[in-house]
Write a structure and sequence with these properties.
It is a single chain. The chain has 112 residues and is α+β, with helices and mostly antiparallel strands. Helix content is 42%, strand content 21%. The chain has 3 helices and 5 strands; from the N terminus they run H-E-E-E-H-H-E-E. It has a 5-stranded mixed β-sheet, covered by helices on one side. The radius of gyration is 15 Å and the shape is globular. The model has no long low-confidence stretch (mean pLDDT 88).
Length: 112
């Protein structure tokens, strides 16, 4: 099932990295498979920015609080890429679930 989601995203032009199988600074679309049953398990997709950008966001938060430009840009990028991934997957006839998780607000569960 994860392979089908990956194929649909790659057909749309994304490079997809499966969590745990790739090395280095992962950026772009990440895919993770959790074989657990129930609400915790499934196939998950999210957008990942470059490590240097994520580090700059953390530094910005420490220096400027949650109103700095770097954090706002980070939220803009992740919010738009999240919406794009949901749209592409749903257009390819997959059902997605926004988990509404405060710890990982851009995580998408793909259910079919």
């Amino acid at each position: 099932m994860a392979r089908r989601f990956c194929d649909a995203l790659e057909a749309a032009g994304f490079t997809v990295h499966q969590e745990g199988r790739s090395q280095g600074d992962l950026r772009g679309v990440l895919l993770s498979v959790d074989p657990s049953e129930g609400l915790e398990g499934g196939v998950f997709v999210w957008w990942s920015v470059a490590h240097d950008f994520a580090s700059a966001v953390m530094e910005s938060v420490h220096q400027e609080g949650d109103h700095g430009h770097t954090l706002q840009h980070y939220a803009f990028v992740n919010g738009h890429m999240h919406a794009t991934l949901v749209s592409v997957l749903e257009s390819a006839s997959f059902q997605t679930v926004d988990l509404d998780d405060d710890m990982d607000p851009f995580l998408i569960r793909v259910v079919s």
